[in-house]
Amino acid sequence: MKRKETILQQMNQLGKQGKPFAFLIDFQATKPKLFDLSSSSENILWKIPCHSNVSPVKNLIKLNKWKISPVSFETYQNGFNQIKQRIFSGDTYLLNFTQPTGIETNVSLEDIFHLSEARYKILLKNEFVCFSPETFVKIEKGKIFSFPMKGTIDADIENAKDIILNDSKELAEHHTIVDLIRNDLSLVAENVVVEKFRFLDQIRTNQKNLFQVSSRISGDLPKNYKENIGHIIFTLLPAGSVTGAPKKKTVEIITETEKYKRGYYTGIFGIFDGENLDSCVLIRYIENQKGKLIYKSGGGITFMSKAASEYDEMIKKVYVPIA
Q1: Which of 58, 75, 81, 265 could hold 71 in an S-S bridge, CB 3.0 to 4.6 Å?
Q2: pTM above 0.85, yes or no
Q3: Does the pLDDT value for residue 82 go beyond 70?
Q4: Would strands 135-140 and 277-281 be described as parallel, antiparallel, or unpaired?
Q5: Topology of domain 2-53+63-316, per CATH?
Q6: 3-class secondary-structure state, position 221
Q7: How far apart are CA 121 and CA 94, in angstroms?
Q8: What's phi and psi for 110, nearest 5 deg?
Q9: Residues near 185 by Cβ (< 8 Å), separated by ≥ 6?
Q10: What whole-number distance in Å separates Cα of residue 101 and Cα of residue 240?
């Protein structure tokens, strides 16, 4: 908690001075980090829409091995059943349940970082690589925007767009997350509105093409938002799209049922340029655990969820965006 408060105050001070910085915050906000934009590349690499500290790399190795070892369905179902019991008890009504999957590949974390195509790419050297399609929040000219992402389908399925957009379970889940994010933004902004509800993005991967469903929410920040930039970010954590609702109780249940540490997975990374800010949720994430690569993935569980389909979705998200 002491480190969190220290980082928060440092972010506020840098914001007040209009000085740029990068930030990395883990799921439980116990290991937040700040980086100077000009001297960070020895420890961390990033390439995001607003900024990059990456130099071009030639003669990249090709991905030609990809073997996954997910947890067994029985293991997954045990956690799933516990969550369903908590849902029926009224403790939560949407919970993002994640699990680790072992992977074997011929490429390194750094290779994957350079090979992959994603809106947000982050490499914390020797620790993890993330190629996230999901924005956490953006701040542009005093307005804050969030783009919660919920709903994934194989884009090559016939009528995939209609199927995902008309699925009642996916619709209910998306409504819940949009309401949660709208309420979260209302803690730091005024005039919060859903500008666009459920639009599709396509992602190309080494396994298949996917459609993912997002919405766009915005609000007006106070004039002194820069000197409170740390407070704004930490108030919104953890990200609602990777926790559930109600958030506080759901995070407690996540800790009880997942039985592994998320670490930086489902945390956030971002850049503040002195005026504006762009950040992402750390999903689509591979971690180095003592030389073994672990992919972390999952999905939202509601009272309508079926264990087999949720298990399949968790595995479907074990990919790298390398065409």
Answers
A1: 75
A2: yes
A3: yes
A4: antiparallel
A5: Anthranilate synthase (3.60.120)
A6: coil
A7: 28
A8: -70, -40
A9: 137, 144, 146, 192, 217, 218, 219, 236
A10: 23
